[in-house]
Amino acid sequence: MRRNRKKQQFHLDIAPVNLIDLLLVLLIFFITTTTFLQLKVIELNLPLSDSTDVKYKKNLTFVVSIKEDCKTFFDKESVTSETLSKLIVEKNRADKESIFQIAADAETPHRCFVDVLDVFKENNIQNIAILTKQRR
Asked: Which stretches are transmembrane (predicted)?
C-alpha cells in the first residue's frame, strides 16, 4: 500500500522586529559617522552694503577672510601675512584675471583690514573685491 505523502510546504516568514533592529543599527552607524564630518566654514558677520555689482569667475576667484580676532584665511586655510603674500603673487602670476575677494568680519579692527590691503598693494595686485551682505 502506497502512502500519499503531501509535499511539505515551507513558509518563509521574515519577522519585522529583526528588520527594525537592523534599521536601528544602520541609523546609529550613520549618525555617529556623519557627526564627525565637519566642513571648513569660517563664520563671518559681513557688514551691510547697498551695492549689488558682483563679478565672479569660478576658478579664478580667491577669498581672503579676516576674522574679528585678526586671524587671516586664504580660501579657508589659516595663513600669516608672509604666506598670504606668496599665495596671492603665485595665483596672480598663474592668471592675471584672478580676482581676490576680501571678507572681513564686521567687528574686525580696521588695522587688520588695512594690513591685508597693504599686502595686496605691496605686490601691486589690483583685482580686489570687498565682500559685504546686501541690505534689504
From this structure: 12-31
Q: Residue ranges of the domains in the chain?
A: 48-134
Rounded-to-integer distance, Cα 44 and Cα 39, Å: 15
pLDDT level of residue 127 (50, 70, 90 thresholds): confident
Residue for grid cell 549689488? 52
Distance of CA 19 to the CA centre of its chain: 37
Cell numbers 587671516 correspond to what residue?
Answer: 72
Q: Does domain 48-134 have CATH number 3.30.420.270?
A: yes
Question: Which stretches of 1-136 are DSSP H helices?
Answer: 16-34, 81-94, 110-122
CB atoms within 10 A of CB 126: 9
The residue count of the chain comes to: 136
16-39: average pLDDT:
79
Q: Burial code of 7-35, b = ≥16 C-beta within 10 A, e = fewer?
A: eeeeeeeeeeeeeeeeeeeeeeeeeeeee
Question: For residue 104, which of 61, 50, 45, 52 has the smallest C-alpha distance?
Answer: 45
- The tens digit of pLDDT for each residue in 37-49 reads 566 666 767 666 6
Q: What is the dihedral of CA 39, 82, 91, 79, to 10 degrees?
A: 0
